[in-house]
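Researcher: Going back to the complex we discussed earlier. I've cleaned up the inputs and rechecked each line, so this should be the final set. Can you rerun the prediction on the complete assembly and write out the structure?
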Amino acid sequence: MNNIIPKTEWIKTWSENGVGWIQLNHENKLNPLSASFILAIKDAAKRFDNDPSIGCIVLIGSEKAFAAGADLKEMIKLNYASVTESRYIENGWLDIPKIQTPIIAGVKGYALGGGLELALSAHIRVASKNSKLGLPEVSLGVIPGYGGTQRLTNLVGKGRAMEYILTAKMIGVEDAKYSGLINEYCELEELLPTCENIAKKIIKNSPRAISKAIKCINASLKNERGFETEIEEFGKCFQTDDFVEGTTAFLEKRKPKYN
Ligand code: CO8
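Model: Rerun complete. Updated structure for the full complex:
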Protein backbone atom coordinates (compact mmCIF):
# COMPACT_ATOMS: atom_id res chain seq x y z
CA MET A 1 0.00 0.00 0.00
CA ASN A 2 3.05 2.26 0.11
CA ASN A 3 3.07 3.31 -3.55
CA ILE A 4 -0.43 4.65 -3.82
CA ILE A 5 -0.83 7.19 -6.63
CA PRO A 6 -3.47 9.85 -5.91
CA LYS A 7 -6.35 9.71 -8.42
CA THR A 8 -6.48 13.45 -9.00
CA GLU A 9 -8.84 13.04 -11.96
CA TRP A 10 -11.57 12.01 -9.49
CA ILE A 11 -11.34 15.36 -7.71
CA LYS A 12 -12.53 18.79 -8.83
CA THR A 13 -11.27 21.84 -6.96
CA TRP A 14 -11.95 25.54 -7.28
CA SER A 15 -11.80 28.54 -5.01
CA GLU A 16 -14.00 31.59 -4.62
CA ASN A 17 -14.02 34.39 -2.06
CA GLY A 18 -11.64 32.61 0.29
CA VAL A 19 -13.50 29.28 0.17
CA GLY A 20 -11.71 26.24 -1.27
CA TRP A 21 -14.16 23.75 -2.77
CA ILE A 22 -13.30 20.06 -3.19
CA GLN A 23 -15.76 17.90 -5.09
CA LEU A 24 -15.52 14.10 -5.07
CA ASN A 25 -16.11 13.29 -8.69
CA HIS A 26 -15.57 9.55 -9.21
CA GLU A 27 -16.93 8.04 -12.42
CA ASN A 28 -19.20 5.94 -10.16
CA LYS A 29 -21.37 8.70 -8.69
CA LEU A 30 -21.51 6.79 -5.38
CA ASN A 31 -17.84 7.85 -4.93
CA PRO A 32 -16.47 4.52 -3.58
CA LEU A 33 -13.39 5.42 -1.55
CA SER A 34 -10.29 3.57 -2.71
CA ALA A 35 -6.88 4.37 -1.20
CA SER A 36 -5.80 6.39 -4.25
CA PHE A 37 -9.06 8.39 -4.17
CA ILE A 38 -8.61 9.12 -0.47
CA LEU A 39 -5.04 10.28 -1.08
CA ALA A 40 -6.25 12.66 -3.79
CA ILE A 41 -8.85 14.11 -1.38
CA LYS A 42 -6.22 14.50 1.31
CA ASP A 43 -3.75 16.15 -1.11
CA ALA A 44 -6.39 18.62 -2.28
CA ALA A 45 -7.27 19.50 1.33
CA LYS A 46 -3.57 19.98 2.17
CA ARG A 47 -3.08 22.27 -0.83
CA PHE A 48 -5.91 24.52 0.34
CA ASP A 49 -4.60 24.31 3.91
CA ASN A 50 -1.24 25.67 2.71
CA ASP A 51 -2.86 28.50 0.73
CA PRO A 52 -3.17 31.61 2.95
CA SER A 53 -5.95 33.01 0.74
CA ILE A 54 -8.23 30.09 1.77
CA GLY A 55 -10.12 30.53 5.06
CA CYS A 56 -12.45 27.55 4.83
CA ILE A 57 -12.68 24.33 2.84
CA VAL A 58 -15.98 22.78 1.69
CA LEU A 59 -15.97 19.11 0.74
CA ILE A 60 -18.87 17.90 -1.40
CA GLY A 61 -19.80 14.83 -3.42
CA SER A 62 -22.21 14.15 -6.28
CA GLU A 63 -26.00 14.58 -6.34
CA LYS A 64 -26.30 10.86 -5.58
CA ALA A 65 -23.75 10.51 -2.82
CA PHE A 66 -21.18 12.28 -0.71
CA ALA A 67 -19.55 8.84 -0.65
CA ALA A 68 -21.08 5.37 -0.17
CA GLY A 69 -18.13 4.03 1.78
CA ALA A 70 -14.88 2.23 1.21
CA ASP A 71 -14.45 0.77 -2.26
CA LEU A 72 -15.57 -2.76 -1.46
CA LYS A 73 -13.85 -4.18 -4.53
CA GLU A 74 -10.58 -2.94 -3.03
CA MET A 75 -11.48 -3.61 0.60
CA ILE A 76 -12.10 -7.31 -0.06
CA LYS A 77 -8.38 -7.68 -0.84
CA LEU A 78 -7.23 -6.24 2.50
CA ASN A 79 -5.95 -8.31 5.40
CA TYR A 80 -4.89 -7.76 9.00
CA ALA A 81 -1.33 -6.76 8.03
CA SER A 82 -2.29 -4.34 5.26
CA VAL A 83 -4.77 -2.62 7.57
CA THR A 84 -2.64 -2.38 10.70
CA GLU A 85 1.06 -2.70 9.82
CA SER A 86 1.17 -0.69 6.61
CA ARG A 87 -0.88 2.01 8.37
CA TYR A 88 -3.36 1.95 5.52
CA ILE A 89 -5.68 4.22 7.37
CA GLU A 90 -3.11 6.78 8.39
CA ASN A 91 -1.91 6.87 4.78
CA GLY A 92 -5.49 7.42 3.84
CA TRP A 93 -7.02 10.16 5.88
CA LEU A 94 -6.39 10.06 9.58
CA ASP A 95 -4.46 13.30 9.21
CA ILE A 96 -7.34 15.21 7.59
CA PRO A 97 -8.40 16.26 11.11
CA LYS A 98 -4.90 17.72 11.58
CA ILE A 99 -5.66 20.31 8.91
CA GLN A 100 -5.77 23.78 10.44
CA THR A 101 -8.31 25.24 8.01
CA PRO A 102 -11.94 24.55 8.93
CA ILE A 103 -13.56 21.90 6.72
CA ILE A 104 -17.31 21.75 6.12
CA ALA A 105 -18.70 18.52 4.69
CA GLY A 106 -21.70 19.19 2.42
CA VAL A 107 -23.62 15.93 2.07
CA LYS A 108 -26.12 15.19 -0.72
CA GLY A 109 -27.50 11.66 -0.99
CA TYR A 110 -25.64 8.81 0.66
CA ALA A 111 -22.89 9.22 3.24
CA LEU A 112 -22.26 5.65 4.32
CA GLY A 113 -19.44 3.78 6.02
CA GLY A 114 -16.11 5.36 5.16
CA GLY A 115 -18.08 8.15 3.43
CA LEU A 116 -19.73 9.14 6.69
CA GLU A 117 -16.41 8.68 8.47
CA LEU A 118 -14.88 11.18 6.05
CA ALA A 119 -17.71 13.62 6.86
CA LEU A 120 -17.13 12.92 10.56
CA SER A 121 -13.51 13.95 10.18
CA ALA A 122 -14.65 17.36 8.87
CA HIS A 123 -15.29 20.10 11.42
CA ILE A 124 -18.91 20.85 10.47
CA ARG A 125 -21.52 18.77 8.60
CA VAL A 126 -24.45 20.04 6.53
CA ALA A 127 -26.80 17.69 4.67
CA SER A 128 -29.55 18.08 2.11
CA LYS A 129 -32.98 16.67 2.96
CA ASN A 130 -32.57 13.67 0.62
CA SER A 131 -29.47 12.49 2.47
CA LYS A 132 -29.13 9.08 4.05
CA LEU A 133 -26.31 8.64 6.50
CA GLY A 134 -25.08 5.54 8.27
CA LEU A 135 -22.32 3.23 9.33
CA PRO A 136 -23.36 -0.13 7.81
CA GLU A 137 -19.98 -1.79 8.38
CA VAL A 138 -21.18 -4.50 10.81
CA SER A 139 -23.58 -5.71 8.12
CA LEU A 140 -20.46 -6.50 6.07
CA GLY A 141 -18.52 -8.18 8.88
CA VAL A 142 -16.24 -5.20 9.68
CA ILE A 143 -16.39 -2.19 12.00
CA PRO A 144 -16.26 1.54 11.20
CA GLY A 145 -12.46 1.51 11.10
CA TYR A 146 -11.77 4.96 9.70
CA GLY A 147 -12.24 6.64 13.06
CA GLY A 148 -16.01 6.12 13.05
CA THR A 149 -16.30 4.35 16.40
CA GLN A 150 -14.38 7.23 18.02
CA ARG A 151 -15.64 10.33 16.21
CA LEU A 152 -19.30 9.27 16.15
CA THR A 153 -19.21 8.52 19.87
CA ASN A 154 -17.62 11.88 20.61
CA LEU A 155 -20.22 13.64 18.53
CA VAL A 156 -23.50 11.95 19.47
CA GLY A 157 -22.68 10.15 22.74
CA LYS A 158 -22.32 6.48 23.57
CA GLY A 159 -26.02 5.55 23.46
CA ARG A 160 -26.69 6.92 19.98
CA ALA A 161 -23.33 5.67 18.67
CA MET A 162 -24.24 2.16 19.87
CA GLU A 163 -27.64 2.39 18.19
CA TYR A 164 -26.31 3.70 14.87
CA ILE A 165 -23.33 1.34 14.64
CA LEU A 166 -24.93 -1.87 15.96
CA THR A 167 -28.11 -1.56 13.89
CA ALA A 168 -26.16 -0.45 10.77
CA LYS A 169 -29.28 1.54 9.89
CA MET A 170 -29.73 4.41 7.45
CA ILE A 171 -30.16 7.67 9.33
CA GLY A 172 -32.39 10.42 7.96
CA VAL A 173 -31.50 14.10 8.35
CA GLU A 174 -34.03 14.87 11.09
CA ASP A 175 -32.67 12.11 13.30
CA ALA A 176 -29.11 13.15 12.38
CA LYS A 177 -29.76 16.78 13.32
CA TYR A 178 -31.49 15.79 16.55
CA SER A 179 -28.57 13.59 17.61
CA GLY A 180 -25.92 16.14 16.64
CA LEU A 181 -24.50 14.02 13.83
CA ILE A 182 -25.10 16.92 11.42
CA ASN A 183 -25.13 20.63 12.21
CA GLU A 184 -27.86 21.59 9.75
CA TYR A 185 -30.02 20.29 6.95
CA CYS A 186 -31.59 22.12 4.05
CA GLU A 187 -33.26 21.73 0.66
CA LEU A 188 -31.10 20.05 -1.98
CA GLU A 189 -30.59 23.23 -4.01
CA GLU A 190 -29.71 25.15 -0.84
CA LEU A 191 -26.81 22.89 0.16
CA LEU A 192 -23.99 24.83 -1.47
CA PRO A 193 -25.29 28.29 -0.42
CA THR A 194 -25.80 27.00 3.14
CA CYS A 195 -22.20 25.72 3.27
CA GLU A 196 -21.01 28.99 1.75
CA ASN A 197 -22.87 31.04 4.37
CA ILE A 198 -21.28 29.09 7.22
CA ALA A 199 -17.88 29.48 5.52
CA LYS A 200 -18.40 33.25 5.21
CA LYS A 201 -19.13 33.51 8.94
CA ILE A 202 -15.96 31.57 9.71
CA ILE A 203 -13.74 33.48 7.28
CA LYS A 204 -14.45 36.86 8.83
CA ASN A 205 -12.81 35.68 12.08
CA SER A 206 -9.10 35.47 12.94
CA PRO A 207 -7.52 32.54 11.04
CA ARG A 208 -4.88 32.09 13.74
CA ALA A 209 -7.51 31.98 16.51
CA ILE A 210 -9.58 29.55 14.44
CA SER A 211 -6.73 27.08 13.94
CA LYS A 212 -5.91 27.27 17.64
CA ALA A 213 -9.58 26.71 18.55
CA ILE A 214 -9.68 23.64 16.26
CA LYS A 215 -6.54 22.28 17.90
CA CYS A 216 -7.98 22.74 21.40
CA ILE A 217 -11.39 21.27 20.56
CA ASN A 218 -9.73 18.24 18.95
CA ALA A 219 -7.39 17.88 21.95
CA SER A 220 -10.38 17.78 24.31
CA LEU A 221 -11.72 14.74 22.44
CA LYS A 222 -8.45 12.96 21.82
CA ASN A 223 -8.32 9.39 22.91
CA GLU A 224 -5.35 7.77 21.22
CA ARG A 225 -6.10 4.43 22.87
CA GLY A 226 -9.54 4.53 21.31
CA PHE A 227 -8.14 4.97 17.80
CA GLU A 228 -5.46 2.31 18.46
CA THR A 229 -8.09 -0.15 19.67
CA GLU A 230 -10.23 0.63 16.65
CA ILE A 231 -7.40 -0.05 14.19
CA GLU A 232 -6.46 -3.30 15.94
CA GLU A 233 -10.03 -4.61 16.04
CA PHE A 234 -10.68 -3.35 12.50
CA GLY A 235 -7.62 -5.31 11.31
CA LYS A 236 -8.86 -8.45 13.11
CA CYS A 237 -12.17 -8.21 11.22
CA PHE A 238 -10.24 -9.02 8.04
CA GLN A 239 -9.25 -12.40 9.54
CA THR A 240 -12.87 -13.47 9.99
CA ASP A 241 -15.15 -15.50 7.72
CA ASP A 242 -17.84 -12.89 8.40
CA PHE A 243 -15.84 -10.22 6.58
CA VAL A 244 -15.35 -12.47 3.55
CA GLU A 245 -19.02 -13.48 3.57
CA GLY A 246 -20.39 -9.96 4.17
CA THR A 247 -18.33 -8.21 1.53
CA THR A 248 -18.63 -11.01 -1.03
CA ALA A 249 -22.40 -11.07 -0.50
CA PHE A 250 -22.63 -7.34 -1.24
CA LEU A 251 -20.57 -7.64 -4.43
CA GLU A 252 -22.61 -10.69 -5.48
CA LYS A 253 -25.83 -8.74 -4.74
CA ARG A 254 -27.18 -11.24 -2.19
CA LYS A 255 -27.88 -11.26 1.54
CA PRO A 256 -24.99 -12.45 3.74
CA LYS A 257 -25.35 -15.64 5.78
CA TYR A 258 -23.62 -15.34 9.16
CA ASN A 259 -23.38 -18.34 11.50
N1 CO8 B 1 -17.72 0.04 -3.12
C1 CO8 B 1 -17.65 -0.40 -4.40
N2 CO8 B 1 -18.69 -0.40 -5.24
C2 CO8 B 1 -19.86 0.05 -4.78
C3 CO8 B 1 -20.03 0.52 -3.46
C4 CO8 B 1 -18.88 0.50 -2.61
N3 CO8 B 1 -18.93 0.94 -1.34
N4 CO8 B 1 -21.31 0.90 -3.28
C5 CO8 B 1 -21.93 0.68 -4.45
N5 CO8 B 1 -21.06 0.16 -5.36
C6 CO8 B 1 -21.31 -0.22 -6.74
C7 CO8 B 1 -22.31 -1.37 -6.84
O1 CO8 B 1 -21.65 -2.63 -6.71
C8 CO8 B 1 -22.88 -1.15 -8.23
O2 CO8 B 1 -21.93 -1.63 -9.15
P1 CO8 B 1 -22.43 -2.29 -10.55
O3 CO8 B 1 -23.14 -1.19 -11.29
O4 CO8 B 1 -21.13 -2.70 -11.16
O5 CO8 B 1 -23.34 -3.42 -10.18
C9 CO8 B 1 -22.90 0.39 -8.36
O6 CO8 B 1 -21.94 0.87 -7.40
C10 CO8 B 1 -24.25 1.00 -8.04
O7 CO8 B 1 -24.65 0.51 -6.76
P2 CO8 B 1 -26.14 0.00 -6.45
O8 CO8 B 1 -26.68 -0.67 -7.65
O9 CO8 B 1 -26.08 -0.75 -5.16
O10 CO8 B 1 -26.86 1.43 -6.29
P3 CO8 B 1 -28.22 1.73 -5.48
O11 CO8 B 1 -28.59 3.13 -5.85
O12 CO8 B 1 -29.21 0.63 -5.70
O13 CO8 B 1 -27.82 1.66 -3.92
C11 CO8 B 1 -26.43 2.17 -2.02
C12 CO8 B 1 -26.98 2.65 -3.38
C13 CO8 B 1 -27.57 2.05 -1.00
C14 CO8 B 1 -25.42 3.21 -1.59
C15 CO8 B 1 -25.76 0.77 -2.19
O14 CO8 B 1 -24.90 0.83 -3.32
C16 CO8 B 1 -24.95 0.33 -1.03
O15 CO8 B 1 -25.51 -0.13 -0.04
N6 CO8 B 1 -23.60 0.45 -1.11
C17 CO8 B 1 -22.69 -0.02 -0.10
C18 CO8 B 1 -22.73 0.88 1.10
C19 CO8 B 1 -21.84 0.32 2.17
O16 CO8 B 1 -22.03 -0.75 2.69
N7 CO8 B 1 -20.82 1.12 2.55
C20 CO8 B 1 -19.93 0.76 3.60
C21 CO8 B 1 -18.73 0.09 3.04
S1 CO8 B 1 -17.66 -0.49 4.37
C22 CO8 B 1 -16.77 0.84 4.77
O17 CO8 B 1 -16.97 1.92 4.27
C23 CO8 B 1 -15.72 0.62 5.79
C24 CO8 B 1 -14.95 1.85 6.09
C25 CO8 B 1 -13.75 1.54 6.81
C26 CO8 B 1 -13.00 0.52 6.00
C27 CO8 B 1 -11.85 1.04 5.31
C28 CO8 B 1 -11.17 -0.09 4.58
C29 CO8 B 1 -10.00 0.32 3.80
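Model: Worth noting: The mean pLDDT is 92.
Researcher: Good, that matches what I expected from the previous run.
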